[in-house]
Specification:
249 residues; alpha/beta; two-stranded antiparallel sheet; 7 helices; globular; binds adenosine monophosphate
Length: 249
């Protein structure tokens, strides 16, 4: 079974995000970028499937500027076999990405596509679902457990208030949630080995896909500043404040 893993280059989750002065977006100059954390989980899951002998090949894909190749090298160092870079300098949006991935799926014929449940920059949580719709494939989103069977994959999903297990007929799309696994750190020898693994470069035009953004961001603002807290002297005072000041009980 071939597994395709789309990985997005995003601002590192440890970075304190700064909104640009003109409110058109967030500052990305001189900011540390990394693989989207949910995509690290997706790569880890695919590599584990390969180690178990269930997957025959793990192919990482990233759509974005030249630097997206660094993200692909990370995926290769974690254990992906090869990578495809869809080079574009326009902002990537879920529908365009899903269309590019559909074109790659048509070409590569994987049995399973494992994406992150959401990219932490746009928080869209749309690409996996759009890809499944474009392909007409089954989807198991927010996965906390993935167990391939024969011609099927069983996916335990993190839903509000519990877990739901669905069995999907392959080929299928799975999106990862936080508790699926703990991604490995790439070892130095594997980072060195990854430098020799192939990254194929293609353009959206090669795939016959128009990646022009369809959505326009009108304004980006910082979250409202939290007011300073206070210390209360007793439980009675706390209850009084919650009742009469905050009016929440
Ligand atoms: P989103 O729908 O934007 O929240 O992204 C969900 C998932 O789609 C991510 O976790 C990635 O697996 C994949 N994805 C989104 N954008 C890209 C991209 N530009 N390149 C590769 N994968 C992407």
């Amino acid at each position: 079974m071939k597994v395709l893993v789309p990985v997005k280059r995003v601002i590192d989750y440890n970075v304190k995000i700064r909104v640009k002065a003109d409110g058109t977006g967030v500052e990305t100059t001189n900011v540390k970028m990394s693989m989207n954390p949910f995509d690290e989980i997706a790569v880890e899951e695919a590599v584990r499937l390969k180690e178990k002998g269930t997957a025959s090949e793990v192919v990482a894909v990233s759509i974005g500027p030249a630097q997206a190749q660094e993200t692909l090298r990370t995926a290769l160092a974690m254990g992906a076999d090869r990578a495809i870079h869809v080079q574009t300098d326009v902002e990537t949006q879920p529908l365009g990405v899903a269309k590019a991935l559909k074109a790659l799926v048509d070409k590569e014929q994987p049995q399973l596509v494992v994406l992150g449940k959401q990219a932490i920059d746009d928080d869209a949580n749309q690409t996996g679902q759009m890809l499944a719709a474009l392909l007409g494939w089954a989807q198991g989103t927010f996965a906390s457990k993935v167990e391939p069977g024969s011609g099927t994959v069983s996916v335990t999903r993190e839903v509000d208030g519990g877990l739901e297990t669905v069995e999907l007929r392959l080929p299928a799309v799975v999106t990862t949630d936080l508790r699926l696994n703990e991604p490995r750190y790439a070892s130095l020898p594997n980072i060195m080995k990854a430098k020799k693994k192939p990254i194929e470069a293609v353009s959206p035009a090669d795939l016959g896909v128009d990646m022009t953004p369809r959505l326009t961001t009108l304004k980006v603002v910082e979250p409202a500043r939290r007011k300073a807290g206070i210390k209360v002297g007793s439980v009675d005072e706390l209850v009084d404040k919650l009742k009469n000041d905050a009016r929440v009980i």
